Amino acid sequence: MGSVRGVGTLVRPAAWTLSQRRDITSWLAQWFPKTPAKPVVALKAPIKVELVAGKTYRWCVCGRSKKQPFCDGSHFFKRTGLSPLKFKAQETRMVALCTCKATQKPPYCDGTHKSEQVQKAELGSPL
């Protein structure tokens, strides 16, 4: 065991036991899965928004955010293993941001939501 030298000194065991390492590994695996979940269809049409030049945005990648098309942290609390796409607007303009999460040009809509696969999918389900 470590020793106490003064106020605020961290006391910890000299070595982690195998059981303790397994407990931490299994806890981390719950919050940070090795295989990320698939994004789900949030909506079947893009959302038009005005982006402001120089402002940084976080586009929802997982499809679970209640603040589409932007991230509200749902990916973390639902343990998806996904992260939002952070981007900075180069100019102030109106754009269509993807909400079907199948675009090939994230975060922008490329019309993929018009495909039969997306239109037949249920909201909240992966493609």
UniProtKB/TrEMBL annotation:
Keywords: 2Fe-2S, Iron, Iron-sulfur, Metal-binding. Residues 44-79, 82-119 form the Iron-binding zinc finger CDGSH type domain. GO terms for molecular function: 2 iron, 2 sulfur cluster binding; metal ion binding. Its cofactor is [2Fe-2S] cluster. Gene3D superfamilies: CDGSH iron-sulfur domain, mitoNEET-type. GO terms for cellular component: mitochondrion. The keyword Mitochondrion does not apply. PANTHER family: CDGSH IRON SULFUR DOMAIN PROTEIN HOMOLOG (PTHR46491), CDGSH IRON-SULFUR DOMAIN-CONTAINING PROTEIN 3, MITOCHONDRIAL (PTHR46491:SF3). This is Iron-binding zinc finger CDGSH type domain-containing protein. It comes from Muntiacus reevesi (Reeves' muntjac).
